[in-house]
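W.,

You were right to be curious about this one. When I first looked at the sequence I had no strong expectations either way, so I just let the prediction run and decided to look at it fresh. Below is the sequence, 332 residues in total, followed by the output.
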Amino acid sequence: MAERDYRAVGPLPSSTRFLAGTSIEVAREIPRGPAPEHALFDFDGTLSLIREGWMDVMVPLLAGILSEYARPGETEADISALVKDFVTELTGKQTIYQMIRLAEEIRARGGVPRDPRDYKAEYHERLMERIASRRKGLADGTLPRAEALVPGSLEILGLLRDRGVRLYIASGTDEEYVLEEAALLGVDEFAPGRIYGAQADYASFSKEMVIRRILAENRVDGRRLAAFGDGYVEIADCKAAGGVAVAVASDESGRSGRPDAWKRERLLGAGADLVVPDYRDAKALVAYVWDGIEPESAADAAPAGRAEPRNGAAADAAGARPSGGPGRGGPR
């Protein structure tokens, strides 16, 4: 089953609001009914920061390959801009789709491309070189897990597990690496046997397939599902199933607690109900989604000593897109 392309479900909400004392932005009010029994989390950029900076690897690599087939008058800057555009456009899908697009661009210029899987292997080799020190540091304990996790990740996973919510992780990164990196971060224990990733036969995996499997095996409808992600695929798939979608507009490089403007707009366009920059407000987020309870004041939501959140976050997020494009941890 091919993964869906990005399409905005409609105009962005004309107004949003924030839960008191939090950075939780409510874009669409959640219909009250049965609480979700199952929660699906994307991995890279939603929980893991191990692959932060992947675009700085992919774009130069693909631009260098495509430049060999440049049309007359097509400059290196033209090629780089084109590659950045299609890499960004396809962000959220499995990595292989960006390589398929590269092959299409080569073919359109009269070239004969290699197998897209070869391009993916070359990209992954370079990415692994970039993140080798992070993986090694996590393995030997010299890099604290907290520095490679979206803030609050372990807290929200623990809160949901303690409630009896069944947790799942699904990623467009190859499954063997998702399993390895989930273990390095200690998140594997929250979803034993329920971590899924891309397969060699890319058509045999999609997040939509994972969602259908969750609902079918547990004989529940989509209202019993919540999804958390920084990619449009899991947001759109969850909403199509009737679930609650939480956009994680994470600032991966800065971990600033402010939403990434590009992610926020894209995920709202995909139908997200809520937007958070991370999980620093995990208790308030879980109470709102699962119990319908809103904090009455900042003191009810924020840990002692935490800076007062900005109720102008929507205006902050609506500003210019960061120069690096989406700061995602890895294409899905």
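Here's what jumped out at me. The longest strand covers residues 166-174. And, maybe more interesting for your project: The CA atoms of residues 37 and 165 lie 5 Å apart.

Coffee later to discuss?

I.
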